[in-house]
């Protein structure tokens, strides 16, 4: 019996192996347990089902990419760092392309609730990729960056699945183009948010001035004995 701490990873590996052999839709938890050499009870104790196994796989890839970053990587321009981080992610996924094709073809075999969790998981992954590349992901602009990169990654992922080159150069070129387009949009958003913030600040100051003037007038119009 595998050590308990290893069971989630063993289940992930078993699930990916099965996905290369048949449609992900036809893979059952019993199949995964038998391939992993564990019991159904062990599966229940460590994962919530097939969708949870996929989320754990995504988290494992996140960790592998982040763990492989070096201090020198942060000296590069943000655009180059982001390309490097995303391409490192594809490198980490390279051995699982057949399984990923099967999973994608079955759309993850997800129900509505699991689909929402999957979207949240992908947004979380892209948030970490952006942070690893030195981009802020807080606030409105940060949320827009996460959503934008998630969309770019989804398109690039499909491109990568069909990329038969040894170094994924076509995928990197496609990613570079997409991120370059998004960079211009991100700059415009940043300027727009800056202007909006400035306008809101001015409006707030104006409102405060109006309230102060009204308070002063009310104080001036009070009877003398009321102010004593």
What does this structure look like?
The protein has helices spanning 7-21, 29-36, 40-46, 50-67, 78-93, 97-105, 112-132, 139-161, 169-221, 224-227. By secondary structure, it is mostly helical. α4 (50-67) packs across α5 (78-93), α7 (112-132) crosses α8 and α8 (139-161) runs antiparallel to α9. The N and C termini lie far apart (87 Å). Residues 28-47 bind DNA. Pfam families: COQ9, TetR_N. One of its GO terms (molecular function) is DNA binding.
How are the elements arranged and paired?
Layout: H1 7-21, H2 29-36, H3 40-46, H4 50-67, H5 78-93, H6 97-105, H7 112-132, H8 139-161, H9 169-221, H10 224-227
Domain HTH tetR-type: 5-65
Organism: Thalassospira povalilytica
InterPro entries: COQ9_C (IPR013718), Homeodomain-like_sf (IPR009057), HTH_TetR (IPR001647)
Strand content: under 5%
Main structural class: mainly alpha
The overall average pLDDT, rounded, is: 83
The total count of strands amounts to 0
Sheet bearing the most strands, described?
A: none
Amount of helix: over 70%
**What is the radius of gyration computed over CA atoms, rounded to a whole number of angstroms?**
26 Å
- The low-confidence parts are none
Q: Please state the overall shape, judged from the principal axes of the Cα atoms.
A: extended
| Tally of helical segments | 10
Distance between the termini: 87 Å
The string of secondary-structure elements, in order, is HHHHHHHHHH
Protein name: TetR family transcriptional regulator
InterPro entries: COQ9_C, Homeodomain-like_sf, HTH_TetR
Keywords: DNA-binding
GO molecular function: DNA binding
């Amino acid at each position: 019996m595998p050590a308990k701490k290893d069971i989630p990873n063993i289940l992930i590996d078993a699930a990916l192996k099965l996905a290369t052999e048949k449609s992900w839709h036809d893979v059952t938890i019993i199949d995964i347990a038998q391939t992993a050499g564990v019991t159904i009870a062990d599966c229940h104790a460590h994962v919530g089902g097939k969708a949870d196994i996929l989320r754990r796989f995504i988290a494992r890839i996140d960790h592998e990419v982040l763990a492989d970053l070096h201090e020198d990587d942060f000296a590069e321009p943000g655009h180059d760092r982001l390309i490097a981080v995303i391409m490192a992610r594809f490198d980490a996924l390279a051995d699982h392309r057949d399984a990923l094709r099967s999973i994608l073809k079955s759309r993850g075999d997800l129900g509505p609730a699991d689909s929402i969790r999957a979207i949240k998981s992908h947004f979380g992954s892209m948030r970490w990729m952006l942070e690893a590349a030195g981009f802020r992901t807080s606030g409105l602009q940060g949320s827009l960056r996460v959503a934008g990169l998630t969309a770019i990654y989804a398109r690039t992922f499909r491109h990568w699945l069909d990329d038969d080159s040894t170094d994924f150069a076509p995928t990197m070129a496609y990613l570079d183009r997409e991120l370059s387009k998004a960079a211009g949009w991100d700059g415009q958003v940043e300027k727009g948010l800056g202007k909006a913030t400035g306008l809101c600040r001015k409006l707030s100051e104006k409102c405060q001035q109006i309230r102060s003037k009204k308070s002063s007038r009310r104080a001036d119009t009070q009877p003398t004995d009321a102010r004593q």
